[in-house]
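[agent] plan:
  1. take the single chain provided in the ticket
  2. run structure prediction with default settings
  3. attach structure tokens to the ticket
  4. add a short note for the reviewer (M.T.)
[agent] executing step 1
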Amino acid sequence: MESITHPTPEEYAPFYTDYIQRAQARGDVIAALLLQIAEVRFALGNLSDEQARFRISADDWSIKEIVSHLIDAERVFSYRFLRISRKDKTPLAGFEQEDFVRESGADELALGDLLSEFEYLRRANAIAIKNVSEESAAQVGTASGSAVSARALIHMIVGHVEHHMASLREKYLPSIS
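[agent] step 2 finished; step 3 output follows
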């Protein structure tokens, strides 16, 4: 698929509106999938492991934990995309992101490894998304108790990274410089 049409509001829960809008602002969502790999590396790749443990408060995630969360969400959204694009109508459960981050042990992992894991996962997902038909992308299923299309999930994958990168640039990275 060369490009993908934007989802309508009926194709996703209102909670995801910010992600969808951020992805739409990128224009070509398919191209954004690969561009975000370089953007994440450019923003975070020169940080030391100690710098990447920075958190803006005790209650906030560290930079490494945010990257781990990007990886987890990428896996969850791409799994949902796979199931829904293949016309699987089985309702898919949500996930508790706080539990996932807490159990990830991200602060003890090398930032370089986290960035590589994100890259490899994203490259594989980009190939799968690029090769999906428009008909498959339009399929609708249920995830986290709400209707969602495969097309909306593609936008969520991009928009979720946009959301967290904006937060990192605004709140985290200026404090480290």
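[agent] step 4 note for reviewer: The domain at 9-176 is CATH 1.20.120.450 (Four Helix Bundle (Hemerythrin (Met), subunit A)).
[agent] ticket updated
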